[in-house]
């Protein structure tokens, strides 16, 4: 079948193979074999099992890798003797390791049971986070952060795979945003917990250092999540909490994506698809946006607590005056965008571009406002940076090279010599938001142009809209890429 359906850059008569005739006549499995009510009940069950744990796991992972920012204001730099740019390198080495281990990690993920694989990896990196509490110097921290990055690189692609295996393309944005809000939600929960650790440390100055307590907290939470993942997460074929009929319905339901389902585990490597990837303009859009969006993210994530402290807040105030309202605002914005994009197709890129305008405004104001006054105005301008996480959620999970390089380099944008104002770093972040906006606009136009082109080709072949939908599903099940499948439509 894959050899007879036309690619987007080919023209010719409508293909008439037996496989195509079968699907046009309704002789193969389609989403219509189950009632809408059955699908609604199944979707509700899937959401109840998957989303809470994915939220918890993803948020814990974010808290783990960014916990170093909080530990920085609670003494880790002083106790381990960090000097100059050594603190910056703790983030840079994390993402360099993340980058190097991404390919082998993804290969292993496709060869193994997805849920079991993620569970083992989470337990291992939980142990690493615990071990950070015993670090004595820069070398110890660099080794541990390297191992942590190598292990954590697996969670985002695993969650992308799980989301694609369980949900239709129309449902992806809202579900991804729901578990994406965990970045903010868990930071609120862990931030308040860290506040409690800091209070106790103030009351017992000779006791456990607060930055060590933070490592114990995050490490234990990660191990707990890893144990839960063993029993719950996976693709429809792998989980135990669905009946065989429910598994079949879950697989058939996502056929409408036209990107393939979990009917068969395809682990073979196809060089033709690799070559097609480098021919596809999407690859370069993904890389550019991922890189540009994570450069400021790497900088602000690493230095957020230090920036808040530069406004005149104490170490403890950076948590409940800085982190908590920042992440609450982030959650509200993420959920708002999720509802809008679900109700109004075609708004995804527009909402991301709006987010970038807000970030650019806040960052530029922050760079040029007086640094010795207007404390709360500067606080408000920095709050606007939470909007910048939205484009990263949509794009960084697709091209991880750009994600890792951006975060690794971004951590070096704020230099110790620029403290406490960090004007150079703040200005650079604002410029990057402007570049990202232009890239988003171009990318959206490309999708619109491709969809119109494909619609014209399908119409010229005399294929109805309903038949095009069903042919798109068949092509995807034959492992045809979205670039080759002229019945596939891009979501923007």
Task: Describe the global form.
Answer: globular
Distance between the termini: 28 Å
CATH topology of the largest domain: Growth Hormone, Chain: A
Question: Per CATH, which architecture of the largest domain?
Answer: Up-down Bundle
What's the number of domains? 2
| Rg calculated over all Cα atoms | 24 Å
User: What percent of residues are in strands?
Assistant: under 5%
The number of helices is 20
What are the segments in which pLDDT stays under 50 over at least 5 consecutive residues? 1-28
Q: What order do the helices and strands follow? A: HHHHHHHHHHHHHHHHHHHH
Helix content: over 70%
Structural class: mainly alpha
Summarize the biggest pleated sheet.
none
Number of strands: 0
Mean pLDDT: 77
CATH uppermost class of the largest domain: Mainly Alpha
> Can you identify the CATH superfamily of the largest domain?
MFS general substrate transporter like domains
Membrane topology: Multi-pass membrane protein
GO cellular component, one term: membrane
GO molecular function: transmembrane transporter activity
Subcellular location: Membrane
Task: Explain what this protein looks like in three dimensions.
This protein is mostly helical. The protein has 2 domains: 35-257, MFS general substrate transporter like domains (Growth Hormone, Chain: A), CATH 1.20.1250; 280-487, Growth Hormone, Chain: A (Up-down Bundle). The protein has helices at 18-24, 36-72, 76-79, 86-111, 114-132, 138-152, 155-166, 169-180, 182-203, 210-232, 244-253, 271-279, 281-310, 317-343, 348-368, 375-383, 389-395, 400-410, 423-460, 465-477.
């Amino acid at each position: 079948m894959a050899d007879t359906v036309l690619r987007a850059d080919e023209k010719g008569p409508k293909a008439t193979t037996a496989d195509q005739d079968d699907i046009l006549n309704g002789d193969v499995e389609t989403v219509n074999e189950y009632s809408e009510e059955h699908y609604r009940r199944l979707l509700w069950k899937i959401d109840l099992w998957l989303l809470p744990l994915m939220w918890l796991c993803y948020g814990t992972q974010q808290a783990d890798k960014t916990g170093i920012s909080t530990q920085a204001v609670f003494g880790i730099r002083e106790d381990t003797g960090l000097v100059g740019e050594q603190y910056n390198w703790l983030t840079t080495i994390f993402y360099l390791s993340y980058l190097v281990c991404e390919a082998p990690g993804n290969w292993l993920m496709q060869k193994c049971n997805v849920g079991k694989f993620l569970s083992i990896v989470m337990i291992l990196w939980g142990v690493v986070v615990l071990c950070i509490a015993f670090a004595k110097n820069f070398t110890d921290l660099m080794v541990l952060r390297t191992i942590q990055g190598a292990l954590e690189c697996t969670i985002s692609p695993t969650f992308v795979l799980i989301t694609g295996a369980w949900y239709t393309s129309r449902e992806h944005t809202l579900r991804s945003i729901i578990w994406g809000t965990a970045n903010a939600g868990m930071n609120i929960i862990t931030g308040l917990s860290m506040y409690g650790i800091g209070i106790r440390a103030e009351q017992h100055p000779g006791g456990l250092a607060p930055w060590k307590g933070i490592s114990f907290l995050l490490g234990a939470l990660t191990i707990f999540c890893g144990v839960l993942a063993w029993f719950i997460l996976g693709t429809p074929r792998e989980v135990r909490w669905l009946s065989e009929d429910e598994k079949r319905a879950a697989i058939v339901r996502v056929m409408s994506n036209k990107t393939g389902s979990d009917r068969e585990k395809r682990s073979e490597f196809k060089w033709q698809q690799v070559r097609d990837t480098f021919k596809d303009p999407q690859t370069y859009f993904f890389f550019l946006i991922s890189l540009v969006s994570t450069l400021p993210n790497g900088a602000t994530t690493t230095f957020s607590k230090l920036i808040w402290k530069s406004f005149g807040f104490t170490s403890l105030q950076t948590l409940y005056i800085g982190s908590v309202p920042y992440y609450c605002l982030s959650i509200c914005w993420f959920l708002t965008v999720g509802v809008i994009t679900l109700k109004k197709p075609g708004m995804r890129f527009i909402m991301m571009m709006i987010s970038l305008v807000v970030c650019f405004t806040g960052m530029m104001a922050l760079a040029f406002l007086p640094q010795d006054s207007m404390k709360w105005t500067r606080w408000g301008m920095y709050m606007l940076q939470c909007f910048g996480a939205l484009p990263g959620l949509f794009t960084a999970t697709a091209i991880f090279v750009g994600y890792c390089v951006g975060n690794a380099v971004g951590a070096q944008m704020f230099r110790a010599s620029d403290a406490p104002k960090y004007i150079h770093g703040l200005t650079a972040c604002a410029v990057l938001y402007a570049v990202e906006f232009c890239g988003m606009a171009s990318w959206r136009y490309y999708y619109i142009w491709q969809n119109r082109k494909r619609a014209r080709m399908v119409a010229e072949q005399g294929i109805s809209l309903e038949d095009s939908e069903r042919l798109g599903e068949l092509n995807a099940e034959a492992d045809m890429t979205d670039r080759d499948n002229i019945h596939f439509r891009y979501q923007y």
